[in-house]
Amino acid sequence: MRRHDVNVYINHYIVRPSIKQVALEAGVSIATVSRLLNNPDSVSIDTAGKVNQAIEALGFRPNFTGRNLRAGRSRTVGVVVPTLSNTVFAQCLQGVELAARQRDYSVMLTATEYRQQDEAAAVELLLAHRVDGVILTVTNADASATLDVLEREQIPYVLVYNQPQESTRPSVSVDNRAAAYDAVTYLIRLGHQRIQMLAGQFHASDRAIQRYHGYLQAMQQHNLVPLEPIEVPRHTNTSLAFEYLQAFRNPSQRPSALFCSNDLLALSAMRDLRALGLRVPDDVSIMGFDGIPLGELMEPTLSSVEQPSEQIGELALRTLVTTIEEQQGGHLVVASHILPHTVRIGGSVKPFTSHR
Amino acid sequence: MRRHDVNVYINHYIVRPSIKQVALEAGVSIATVSRLLNNPDSVSIDTAGKVNQAIEALGFRPNFTGRNLRAGRSRTVGVVVPTLSNTVFAQCLQGVELAARQRDYSVMLTATEYRQQDEAAAVELLLAHRVDGVILTVTNADASATLDVLEREQIPYVLVYNQPQESTRPSVSVDNRAAAYDAVTYLIRLGHQRIQMLAGQFHASDRAIQRYHGYLQAMQQHNLVPLEPIEVPRHTNTSLAFEYLQAFRNPSQRPSALFCSNDLLALSAMRDLRALGLRVPDDVSIMGFDGIPLGELMEPTLSSVEQPSEQIGELALRTLVTTIEEQQGGHLVVASHILPHTVRIGGSVKPFTSHR
DNA sequence: ATGAAAGCGCTAACAG
DNA sequence: CTGTTAGCGCTTTCAT
Predict the structure, then answer these.
(1) What is the dihedral of CA A323, A329, A334, A340, to 10 degrees?
(2) What SMART domains does this protein map onto (chains A, B) (predicted)?
(3) B-proximal residues of A, 188-227, CB under 8 Å
């Protein structure tokens, strides 16, 4: 009797067949069905036939909830990103998802909108779902209650973008300080002396702080006077960054180059400088950070520190899965991966010339 | 006895406390613990105290796997996007995640990289996880085996970006045809006559086809000769689009305006035209589709059909949750939501002048 | 090679 | 207000 594509209803509700109905249909025990599912070789060839037929007929699909409950594992990883509006996190997530799927892991996603209190809630949710591990970017990796929870609960996790300084926590990132140092040194080599940093709120991103340190180091090492960084609040979607750049109208108030803590900021700055009647790179050179793909599509192309976002995600997932699966074996290895960055040279930066 | 922050180990393995240990610790039955968790008012004030104390002491966290197995629901929705490299999908996902969290739903994510066979696998995975519903963008909403599976299994789903023509399937999108029509009509009003469409592979996106129909309609209605659309393969990351635009060197071969089926393509085209020595908008006007935020940051700003991606995601989630929760009540309402689009006017388009 | 049975964590009758 | 119990779907001994 062939019942393929025929659903079973009870009181209007569709009944999703379980291993139990399959067993009944095939005339075997549920254990046998389970065996076929998990270790096909352990059942005889003709029972296998019967069971497969029943599975087909009923449209059976294993229920991971039951499996996970039993196994105490979920083959699911949680991901916590600050936002998906910033391409870097989307790219990273893309890398995570791809690598996860290759390994038959699923991905549960949460976003925090850069709110530190939401980090905790996000992780709580993931823990309630019993994810096997978490990939996340936090506000401050060196003082994070959220990470402490993860440690205490001994849930494997890997930080992305965060580069913990004082603590030894598994992470995948570029060397933010060194990358910023390289970018600023590049500007200095081109003759720039008045270089200012434009950043989001420092308290919302430890990476921005590390990049600022790289800026400072480059300036000091070349005997240049660091300028006060410009800190703009988030949700400066419109030209609110505008008000922070007003001073630039006065040439003497204006840096010759602006080092931005991320590309979104860099692009906003370019637009707002333009609105102020200033030209990039002629009046101000712009250096970004992240290396988002779109930076290369514009004119002038954006100079930026390129970090391999998709790779970061992929490596984080691989590291996490390794940790999860070794955890069974006992010994945990904490690995901090620093991936190489590149200073991408684009048209938004030009050598400094005094007679401009 | 206070045991907060003290983990319980058995053979090196951490034991995550269950409702059972909490009950033991508090000296009540597991039912009481469950009640406190789900309906705090139904337990006496002092038992509540004891139980809460036990929960605190043990660091208990409810296990959704058990709960879900029992309930037959997961309070989780699955999302299937073609890719996260395209900002529109990331934005949409952002909208979904935000709205989901507000309603205490979790999000499980999968990507297909525009491979139709991966759509099926993605949905299978989500179904195995017993998600309560699915939000997805498919290659072709009118002939999708994946959607048929969803229908047959009676899993609530909502399409995003897809705008089914022949079938009546729940969806949230703009009116692609009308939007394209509006964009092209705008170009025509500006005096353009040789308008060509630049698209990704049509077979990979029903939206692109609908937009092409809008293009055709606008051209025909204004008695203009439609040009053969240019179809570029995906993963034209570098300047492969280049080869498709070579003909543009010859002014007589060149349209005065290019209507692109998405913004990524539009930006790539702008770059490649530039590389060809052509100026935008002076030599060729460019109209995009999607209205990605970055389009407004560049110079010239990108003219584009703006669709409210984050809203699309949010509304899809809301619709989905409504469906999920009404499903209990029986009657299903299939709703197709068409959200308003806007032709965003930017500097990449200028009126056509013959003496250029 | 197969079956019987226990139990993962939880909720919902049901009984008191 | 609280306890007892069954069972959601599955895997895994332990027998046979």
Answers:
(1) -50
(2) HTH_LACI
(3) none
